Amino acid sequence: MGLFSHERRWKAESRTPQTEEDVARASNRRLIVVRLAVVLLFSVLSLQLLRFQVWSGGRYQLKAESNRVRLQVTEPARGLIYDRQHQPLVKNIASYTAVVIPADIPKGREQDLYFQLSSILGVPPDVIDQMVKDSVKRSDTLTPVKVKEQLDQRTLLTLAELRHTLPGVDVRYDAERQYADSTLLSHVFGYVGKITEDDYPQLKDRGYQLSDQIGKTGVEYVYEDQLRGTPGRRQIEVDASGRELRQLDEIPARSGN
Predict the structure, then answer these.
(1) pLDDT, tens only, 134-151
(2) Nearest to 143, CA basis, from 96, 77, 200
(3) Is 138 in contact with 200 (CB distance < 8 Å)?
(4) Which residues pair with 92 in a beta bridge?
(5) Contact in structure between 202 and 120 (CB atoms under 8 Å)
(6) Which of 19, 88, 94, 165 has its CA 20 to 30 A from that of 184?
(7) Do 159 and 166 meet the contact criterion of CB atoms below 8 Å apart?
(8) To 5 degrees, how large is the angle CA 17–CA 23–CA 28?
């Protein structure tokens, strides 16, 4: 019993008590470490701010501006074809097309959007997905992808009602060609069709877009330059979902002859 007590007393006596000077020195060391950590953290943040605002400022500003202000092409009305009594043989009738703008689809929500759009338009979601991928590969993410043409009134109303839940989806006005006596004169009139992937590189330099139509045969083909007209331009401001807020500037399209 006494031996153990003596042992404990010896251990307690062997510890050197810390003086106030030692405590102050240890506290100063900890304070210096904290200060260095704070200085390092703020140095990293300052370098990041410098990189964003100075070195890469122009690039980020241009990217933000391109997201806010967009240049939209407006298609001209295709010229009409008359007979010698000035009766229309080929004219335009109003048509509406559902389009997808890939740049405005929230990242990670593509498949949900395609399924929702499929339930409205009746186009399979995998088909919509492939349409968008093909368009982005050939053009860019701001080019509208035509998903379904000649929309009926009920579909138009549904898309308008669900507009705010379908980011990246829009309805565009198109003009569909209507031919008189198409059975007898179809070989004379010819027809218009979509631009093919092979033809697009040459037509792009002439102001055509991948979604445009062009004369394929007959009068539509021979007089393409006169019938097409001149596309216009609209500079618009959009929100984060790509919805038009206001028009900033416009160069009207000129109808074909």
Answers:
(1) 888 887 788 888 999 889
(2) 200
(3) yes
(4) 177
(5) no
(6) 94
(7) yes
(8) 160
The tokens 């209507």 sit on which residue?
178
Instruction: Assign 191 to helix, strand or coil.
Output: strand
Give pLDDT tens digits for 187-224.
889 999 888 878 888 888 888 887 788 999 999 999 99
Q: Which amino acid is at 182?
A: S
- Residue 236's SS3 state is strand
| 81, two tokens | 């074809």
Q: Give CA 167 to chain center in angstroms.
A: 10
Q: HSE on the CB side for 104, CA within 13 Å?
A: 24
167 closest CA partner among 113, 120, 224: 113
* Beta-bridge partner residues of 213: 194
pTM: 0.62
Measured distance CA(252)–CA(176) in Å, rounded: 20
